TrEMBL record:
GO biological process, one term: glucosamine catabolic process
Family indicated by similarity: Belongs to the glucosamine/galactosamine-6-phosphate isomerase family.
Organism per entry: Absidia glauca
Keyword annotations from UniProtKB, A to Z: Carbohydrate metabolism, Hydrolase
Domain of life: Eukaryota
Gene Ontology CC terms: cytosol
PANTHER family on file: GLUCOSAMINE-6-PHOSPHATE ISOMERASE
Cleaved signal peptide residues: none
SUPFAM superfamilies (UniProt xref): NagB/RpiA/CoA transferase-like (SSF100950)
Name recorded for this polypeptide: Glucosamine-6-phosphate isomerase
GO molecular function: glucosamine-6-phosphate deaminase activity; identical protein binding
Function: Catalyzes the reversible conversion of alpha-D-glucosamine 6-phosphate (GlcN-6P) into beta-D-fructose 6-phosphate (Fru-6P) and ammonium ion, a regulatory reaction step in de novo uridine diphosphate-N-acetyl-alpha-D-glucosamine (UDP-GlcNAc) biosynthesis via hexosamine pathway.
Gene3D superfamilies according to UniProt: 3.40.50.1360
Length: 330
């Protein structure tokens, strides 16, 4: 698992937006081979969504061949309600993109048969060949999507009763009134997320620092469902400095030093990013502009490393890119 620490929310949003952009571009999606992206709602991904929309508007990125699957939805809240995840994602993301509406998959919290709706969703994911990159956010107790503490780590899309802490936390979107917050939700399962070929979790704010510490420094545990990411071969967490408050100093130093080594191996210094930085992967052969290099060399490097590893031998298919000199880089 990789832990990328940035100064604040804006830097986290910048990093994740660039990362998603590079992953999509690298993938070279087409009608027959679309890029399948899992998406969260909530305040954590907002800055990232705004940046992705800007890329799209500027013609630097297209969602034409991107299929999306949203993580969760309240049960019983009308779709047009401003706080339904359907409305949220349309308002803050989809309507600003060139995405084809039929490629947007969202759970219907008003379906007549909720169990059937969950089965339909899982089947739809399978039908498109699985999710390439699942981006996620967490609640203060470490729940991913609506997989509340105690959720099975092998869970699939299903109906969940919300934990009281979640209802309180989300009441900020319902005029601060707990009674207005729906008590049930549809959510992808922990295993649905972990089945994705890559998982990227955005965690921002001191109020999530305990959850981050549990996820990174403690074991895999159903009371902190995001901790399942430890078992994922390509798990990535992007957080800000405030969120590291409960981590050991040595843990923070460790992940920062890894990123430093990573950058010096894959960044501009040694790899001539101005050339075909991604050529080792065989996936994309795009040249980076100087501006991109100045702004996002670490992101380009991360993506390049990611691609190189994916493209490697079976034994290379791990995320430990940072700790291992790549034979491809000789
Ligand atoms: N079910 C949602 C999640 O999908 C979301 O990721 C999380 C964090 O939200 P926020 O980013 O607003 O803190 O809250 C919830 O409870």
């Amino acid at each position: 698992m990789r832990l990328v620490i940035r100064q604040d929310y804006d830097e986290v949003s910048d990093w994740v937006a660039h990362y998603i952009k590079e992953r999509i571009i690298q993938f070279q999606p087409s009608k027959d081979r679309p890029f399948v992206l899992g998406l969260p709602s909530g305040s954590s991904p907002l800055g990232c969504y705004q940046r992705l929309a800007k890329f799209c508007k500027a013609g630097q990125l297209s969602f034409k061949h991107v299929i999306t699957f949203s993580m969760d939805e309240y049960v019983g809240l009308p779709r047009e309600h401003s706080q339904s995840y359907y409305s949220f994602l349309w308002e803050h993301f989809f309507k600003h993109l060139d995405i084809i509406p039929e490629n947007i998959n969202q759970l219907d919290g008003n379906a007549a048969d909720l169990d059937e709706e969950c089965r339909r969703y899982e089947a739809a994911i399978v039908k498109v060949g699985g999710i390439e990159l699942f981006v996620g956010g967490i609640g203060p107790d470490g729940h991913i999507a609506f997989n509340e503490p105690g959720s099975s780590l092998t869970s699939r899309t299903r109906v969940k009763t919300l934990a009281y802490e979640t209802i309180i936390a989300n009441s900020r979107f319902f005029d601060g009134e707990v009674s207005k917050v729906p008590k049930l939700a549809l959510t992808v399962g922990v295993a649905t997320v972990m089945d994705a070929r890559e998982v990227c979790i955005i965690i921002v704010g001191a109020h999530k620092s305990v959850a981050l510490a549990k996820c990174v420094e403690e074991g895999v545990n159903h009371m902190c469902t995001v901790s399942a990411i430890q078992l994922h071969p390509k798990g990535l967490i992007v957080c800000d400095e405030d969120t590291t408050l409960e981590l050991h100093v040595k843990t923070v130093k460790y992940f920062k030093s890894i990123e430093h080594v990573h950058q010096s191996m894959i960044g501009t210094e040694n790899l001539s990013l101005q050339g075909q930085v991604l050529s080792t992967s065989g996936i994309a052969k795009r040249r980076y502009t100087q501006e991109e290099l100045d702004k996002g060399s670490s992101i380009a490097g991360a993506v390049a490393a990611s691609a190189a590893i994916c493209d490697g031998d079976a034994e290379d298919k791990t995320d430990d890119v940072d700790q291992r000199p790549s034979k491809k880089r000789k």
